[in-house]
Amino acid sequence: MNVPNKLTLSRFALTIAFLAFMFSPVPMRETLALVLFSIASLTDYFDGKIARRDKLITNFGILMDPLADKILVCSAFIAFVGLNWMPAWMVVIIVARELAITGLRLLAASKNLVLAAEGYGKHKTISQIVAIIAILVRHSYQQMGVVGTTVFGFDLLGKPWIDWFEPLAIWVAVVLTGVSGLLYLWRNRQLYLQDL
Question: DSSP letter string over 27-80?
Fold first, then answer.
């Protein structure tokens, strides 16, 4: 098994560990979850980079890499609903988009077509990761001691700047997720309209 595929598989294991910490009574669980999610996000970056650089693109990687990404991101957002850190309706938009696009890609594959990723989709993924990290930072920075409060807790208009940034990051992720999904479905509408 090549390195990119090992990194992809590690993302599944990191997702399980991330969720275990999110719902465990362990001290500093939010900080540990933040570290695990950040490492998992880096594996996503490096597995694609290494696969392209070393020409190690495999069918396994083509299928499992985006699946690992979706499981990681959707698991985090669903966990946030369970902890009352994020409204459920926002997470429904995010998860529904991921399921709809996955379904569309499966439909395309059944017709021997490959739907390429689009620019909006890449921006969507980045915005989701930023939003998840912002949420985790907001709930963990005080556990990091002086460094955390200095970096993330300095005052901006009467409250820590992370308290302003977190909701902004969430809204950007939700809007980009919804818009990118609608655009993707619209641009590929012939694929599913002909089967109706």
Answer: TTHHHHHHHHHHHHHHHHHHHHHHHHHTT---HHHHHHHHHHHHHHHHHHHHHH
Q: How far apart are the first and last CA of the chain?
A: 41
80 vs 196: CA distance, rounded Å? 36
Tell me which of 1.10.3080.10, 3.40.190.170, 1.20.120.1760, 3.40.50.2300 is the CATH number of domain 3-193. 1.20.120.1760
When computed from its CA atoms, the radius of gyration of the chain, rounded to whole angstroms, is: 18
Statement: the pTM of the whole predicted model exceeds 0.70: yes
For 7-39, what is each residue's pLDDT tens digit? 999 999 999 999 999 999 999 999 999 999 999
